[in-house]
Amino acid sequence: MAFGDQRPFVVAMIAIDAQTVGTWAEKQGLAYTSFMDLSRKPEVAGLIGAEIAKANASLPDIQQVKRYLLLTKELEADDAEMTRTRKVRRRFVAEKYASVIDAFYGGKESADVTVEITFEDGRKSVLNSTIANHGKAAAEPARRAA
C-alpha cells in the first residue's frame, strides 16, 4: 500500500503466542500480569523485531516488513476476528483495527484502539489501549546499501 509519492511497504500486525512468549519471558526473568502487559514489554518487541530481521534477511527490500506492532489482545473467534478453524477474518480485522492501519501508513508512532471483547460466558467488555508501532517510520523506508 502506498500513500502520496512513497514507495509501497509491508507492515505486520502480530498477535504473540501467549504460551510461547510467556515461557520466554519467564526464562528471561521478565514479570508480566496479562497478555496486554506481556505484549507491551519492550523486551518482547525486541524479540519479535529480531525474528522479523532474520526473516527480512532472506527477502528482497520490497517484501521486507518495515513496521510492525504487537496486538494487545489475542485474536479470538468469539470476537469474530477468526473463524472457529483459526483463520483470520481479514476484512473484519481491517475494519476493527482501521485506526492502527492508518497509523502504520501515516508514520505515527502509536495508535489508540478500542475493541470489544466477548468472554467465554458471553459477557462483553471494552478494551481501550494504545498500540506502539515498531520499526522504521513510513516516511523513512529502509534502504539497502549499494
User: How many beta-strand runs?
Assistant: 4
**Relative helix content:** 25-40%
Shape: globular
What is the helix tally? 5
Assign the structural class, choosing from mainly alpha, mainly beta, alpha/beta, alpha+beta, or little secondary structure. Answer: alpha+beta
Residue windows where pLDDT falls under 50 for at least 5 positions: 1-5, 137-146
The profile of the biggest β sheet is: 4 strands, mixed
Architecture blueprint of SSEs:
Blueprint: E1 10-14, H1 18-27, H2 35-40, H3 42-56, E2 65-70, H4 90-96, H5 98-106, E3 110-118, E4 124-135
Parallel strand pairs: 1-2
Antiparallel strand pairs: 2-4, 3-4
Can you walk me through this structure?
This protein is an alpha+beta fold and 146 residues long. The chain has one domain (10-135). It contains five helices and four strands. A four-stranded mixed β-sheet has the order 1-2-4-3, with helices on both faces. Strand 3 (110-118) and strand 4 form a beta hairpin. The chain starts with 9 loop residues before the first strand and ends in an 11-residue tail after the last strand. The relative contact order is 0.19. Residues 1-5 and 137-146 have low confidence and may be disordered.
Brief write-up:
By secondary structure, this protein is of the alpha+beta class. The protein is built from 5 helices and 4 strands; from the N terminus they run E-H-H-H-E-H-H-E-E. The chain is globular, with a radius of gyration of 16 Å.
Distinctive features:
146 residues; 4 strands; 4-stranded mixed β-sheet; disordered C terminus; alpha+beta; globular
